[in-house]
Amino acid sequence: MPQAYDSLAEWFEYLNDDCDYEKWSQYFIRGLSALGAGKKGLEVGCGSGYFCRALAKEGYVMTGTDISAPMLDVAAKKAREAGVRAEFVLSDVLRLHTPERYDFALAPNDCFNYIPQEKLAQAFRRVADCLKKGAIFWFDISSAGKLRGKVGDNIFADDREEVTYLCFSKLRGESVEMDVTLFARQADGRFVRSDEKHVQYIHEEDDVLSALRAAGFAPIAVEGHLGEEKAGSDRINFLCRRA
């Protein structure tokens, strides 16, 4: 079975067109400016590279990393098509190492839900090692309430002209296992099936903050999606500085 996002890579942004990427990217751009962040940024778990492209268009010098080679292939292609420059590097966050240091790091769209609780501090330390002193680290997770109450033990489907997406999710203690199936139309009109398995881990706010402090980060704020109240939000944002 392919790794998570190997088959989804080509369709990821298309299937997520309801998340308002434009509004989401502007949330980061305004926030980075307000926090006084520099222009050299790292995106961890960049996927197909939307946020790297959006920030590059605003004058940021962006590097994106991801564990999925197919995702990075799509990211590089989309950057070329958009006429923006961004570097994309294949890397697992648990082994992340960069030859230079960055003014800020972003990790939107639940990247760290793919990291088990016992490895969170290790992952955060890897990010810290890539940042300048005082740099911003801004990431989100899918909330525990979302994963337990909305995603776990549920079925999701999206049937479109070119692709059909199916996801069967099971709550397994402190994680959610997702079996994903795609039926994608080929140039000759045939539909080809592909299957992936995803595992997302449930993280409580206090555990994330503890892991951040252990990795040398000083929390600035914790807020809901796009700055909304965190109570009841499906997505929790953590803003912090490297000590």
What does the model show?
It is a single chain. With 243 residues, this protein is an alpha/beta fold. It has 2 domains: 9-143 and 204-242, Vaccinia Virus protein VP39 (Rossmann fold, 3-Layer(aba) Sandwich), CATH 3.40.50; 146-200, S-adenosyl-L-methionine-dependent methyltransferases (N-terminal domain of TfIIb, Single Sheet). 28% of the residues lie in helices and 36% in strands. The chain has helices at 12-15, 21-34, 50-57, 69-82, 120-129, 144-151, 205-214; strands at residues 40-44, 61-66, 87-90, 102-107, 131-142, 154-159, 163-172, 175-185, 191-201, 217-224, 235-242. The chain has a 7-stranded mixed sheet with strand order 3-2-1-4-5-11-10, sandwiched between helices. The chain has a 4-stranded antiparallel sheet with strand order 6-7-8-9, covered by helices on one side. Helix 2 crosses helix 3 and helix 5 (120-129) packs across helix 7. The model has no long low-confidence stretch (mean pLDDT 96).
Q: Strand order of the main beta sheet, please?
A: 3-2-1-4-5-11-10
Give the C-level CATH assignment of the largest domain.
Alpha Beta
CATH architecture of the largest domain: 3-Layer(aba) Sandwich
What name is given to the CATH topology of the largest domain?
A: Rossmann fold
How helical, in percent, are the residues?
25-40%
CATH superfamily heading of the largest domain: Vaccinia Virus protein VP39
Beta-strand share of residues = 35-45%
**Average pLDDT reading:** 96
Low-confidence stretches: none
